[in-house]
Specification:
CATH class of the largest domain in chain A: Alpha Beta
Number of domains of chain A: 2
Helix content of chain A: 10-25%
Structural class of chain A: alpha+beta
Number of strands of chain A: 10
Oligomer: homodimer
Order of helices and strands of chain A: EEEEHEEEHEHHEE
Distance between the termini of chain A: 39 Å
Number of helices of chain A: 4
Shape of chain A: globular
CATH superfamily of the largest domain in chain A: Nucleoside Triphosphate Pyrophosphohydrolase
Strand content of chain A: 25-35%
Chain lengths: 231, 231
DNA sequence: TCAATAGTGTCTGTTAGACATTATGGA
DNA sequence: TCCATAATGTCTAACAGACACTATTGA
């Protein structure tokens, strides 16, 4: 241990305004979609992310669940922070710090409330700059985590076909996957188990339904993956 | 587009107090270490994470740089948010929302200021519960990102031996790596380039020094890696 | 029967990990 | 010389991706 100072650090807290911005993501019409709500921005109404300030005593994830539920009609299955922004208040009544939270909602979830609507990620209307940033970060975080965390299962109903699962992975990763390799890797992962049910969707052979049921498994491969670096 | 509601959502902002907690990480004595400072906690002095409220107009990362510099004497090379906590104010003068930020400082950085000290992650003194959480999250985030982002190079001086680099990876991953495989993967990644210098450290053959110099490279492998799931 | 989708077996090129070997310094 | 560390070559088992094939439904 070293000498103690005689000028201890004693920071002072400062008042600020806080908002929680929620990016509810769900696969809709073969694209990853974001839930937006109609809300007044200045004098007019525009589409914006659902947001609100946390209530006293309410945690950030609790606030996100409440905010998402108000737009979706039901609570999403999964929440994850995607970053806190402090770009300063631009207009009176706006917050100067906002916590961005991504939420995942299965494709089977009910239609949104009347004042809300799904928009594909690639075709969003104009958003406030901060909301645009939060959406981009949410998409990036979800895409980055998809093969390190079982996120994909939060975008599917409790039972699903392996083709459904692969389609979600392809949505999140933004590229096609090889069917046989995908199933081999999935088999080795012990993440799903088959059910007794089959799903028939018009033409073609019916597909067996699976459920998410992670189990113990042998040690994963160990190598360092430099090749995932993006920069 | 659907019917517009006649009860638009208009959330109200609310005043809150904000803190930035900084976890400066650096490899020290063959372990990943955290920088702590002496600061008053209630009536006594304890070791705590460096923290402060952001100043008016100051961004969160700017605040983290200022806070870390005050304890370290120099600014860390890299910052990354690890989560925002809102577990409620427990004592007067404490913040009720805190943004946790991890900072990486190379092993070669100068000794910390007098009121600060490095502690190995495994041997930290008792911290406030919120600070303990932030430290754990910082360690988890850094360990998770190490093979998706060139974090390891932020923990090394500008030039380093491949054994140094491997040691940092082993610290972050918490396991030993195979030397030949490590170098093969590194070679294929085009992340480093050799310099003309060699480093001799007592016994043994001198090692060539390398520097971080990422370049273009062929497409990365494409498979889905279910086996990295932790849950 | 054809079309469409589900699901599987086999081959091959690539690579992680193991092992062995050489290289080069200090004691 | 011995020891310690650096650096590299070779072998093998495992695996990703490609391809081909069978299976099962509706039209």
């Amino acid at each position: 241990m070293r000498d103690r100072p005689n000028v201890p650090i004693k920071p002072a807290v400062r008042r600020t305004t806080l908002a929680v911005d929620v990016v509810v993501l769900s696969p809709r019409a073969d694209a990853l979609a974001v839930l937006l709500v109609r809300a007044p921005v200045g004098a007019r109404e525009k589409w914006t992310l659902p947001w609100d300030a946390p209530q006293p005593g309410e945690g950030l994830e609790d606030a996100a669940a409440r905010i998402a539920s108000a737009a979706l009609g039901t609570a999403p299955a999964y929440f994850e922070q995607v970053g806190t922004l402090s770009d300063g208040r631009r207009h009176p009544g706006e917050a100067d710090v906002s916590v961005g939270i991504a939420a995942l909602s299965p494709a089977s979830a009910d239609a949104p409330m009347e004042e809300a609507e799904w928009f594909p990620l690639a075709g969003l209307p104009a958003l406030a700059p901060r909301h645009r940033t939060v959406v981009d970060r949410a998409a990036a975080v979800v895409r980055q985590r998809v093969d390190q965390s079982p996120l994909a299962f939060r975008l599917l109903p409790p039972t699903f076909t392996l083709s459904d699962l692969q389609a979600v992975y392809e949505l999140l990763l933004g590229r096609r996957l090889h069917k046989a390799s995908f199933r081999r890797a999935l088999q080795a992962s012990y993440l799903v188990e088959p059910t007794d049910e089959w799903h028939s969707e018009g033409r073609g052979r019916p597909a067996q339904l699976f459920r998410y049921a992670p189990r113990k498994r042998r040690g994963a491969r160990r190598g360092v993956r430099f090749d995932l670096f993006t920069e």
